[in-house]
Write a structure and sequence with these properties.
By secondary structure, the chain is α+β, with helices and mostly antiparallel strands. It has 9 helices and 16 strands. The relative contact order is 0.16.
């Protein structure tokens, strides 16, 4: 078997420690070609240009995997688009790995990559870019932007997102967003469009979502008050946010989100840009070993 490894040594806090061992284990069962990322979009370019491989193994976090799946699906090579992907979770939260119940330990994840069965999953797509887990609009995206812009220099990983979140919360005064679906229209101040139920590794903002179903789950928070946002966050932590009167939840195959102000977007945990956004779902878009 010919296998390709795309590895991100900067994923999480210590991914670089595992890459050599991952290569060694994979080489015991496959003819391996390794690609090491050095900067953003390297994983995309590697995946886009891979050839003659039976399996693409991604060692990194959700952002690395997101780049790889977009690279594969951007290729004109039909055979590459049918090549299964396998995930070795080395990121901070590993949302997709938890969703698919892929082992968090590298050796177990490698064993699954080599012996598991590929299965088709559906993907979300926002302004032409695919996502596996979720797209966040508003508060969480601005939190991700704070980390991206190096506002937090002395902490990393989960702590960086927590610190950035408090900074965003302290200045929380969001513009309204408008959500239009084929079925209805909604308004709110922050939203999560889920292709998966898992969010942030441990929480479930869109608990009824599934990567095996060609439909998106949307959770909208409808209040702009800081105290209400704290209540919403508390509800997410407790798993009871869908019972709050200022939360809307629905399923759809497509939606458009706009705003009269500047509203940020994150996709699979990485900063993406600003509204407007057109979002849809693609059935059975890619194969993942699980």
């Amino acid at each position: 078997m010919n296998a390709s490894l795309i590895a991100n040594p900067a994923a999480g806090n210590k991914a670089h420690r595992f890459i050599s061992g991952i290569e060694t284990l994979l080489k015991q069962k496959a003819s391996l070609t390794t690609f090491i990322t050095r900067q953003k979009r390297d994983a995309f370019e590697f995946a886009l240009n891979i050839s003659d491989t039976d399996l693409i193994v991604v060692a990194g976090g959700d952002g690395t995997f997101n780049e790889v799946l977009n690279g594969v699906l951007s290729s004109s090579d039909i055979r590459l688009k049918e090549t299964p992907l396998a995930l070795i979770p080395l990121g901070t939260t590993n949302v997709l790995a938890r969703e698919l119940r892929i082992p968090q330990k590298a050796d177990k994840a490698i064993e699954l990559a080599l012996t598991g069965k590929p299965g088709k999953v559906s993907l979300g797509r926002i302004n032409g870019w695919y996502f596996a887990s979720m797209a966040g609009i508003g508060f969480d995206a601005e939190t991700v932007l704070g980390v991206k812009n190096n506002l937090i220099k002395k902490v990393s990983g989960k702590a960086a997102h927590i610190v950035s979140g408090f900074r965003v919360l302290a200045q929380y005064n969001p513009p309204a967003i408008k959500i239009k679906t084929p079925e209805n229209e909604y308004a709110g101040y922050t939203a999560v469009v889920g292709n998966a139920s898992n969010y942030g590794g441990y929480f479930h903002v869109t608990p009824a979502a599934s990567v095996t179903e060609p439909i998106l789950d949307v959770c909208i928070f409808n209040s702009r008050k800081r105290k209400d946002l704290l209540r919403f966050i508390g509800g997410v932590i407790a798993g009871r946010h869908l019972y709050l009167k200022d939360v809307s939840y629905f399923k759809t195959r497509g939606l458009e989100i706009t705003s009269g102000g500047t509203v940020h977007i994150q996709v699979d945990g990485d900063y993406f840009g600003i509204l407007p956004a057109k979002i849809d779902v693609v059935r059975d878009a890619i194969s993942i070993v699980r």
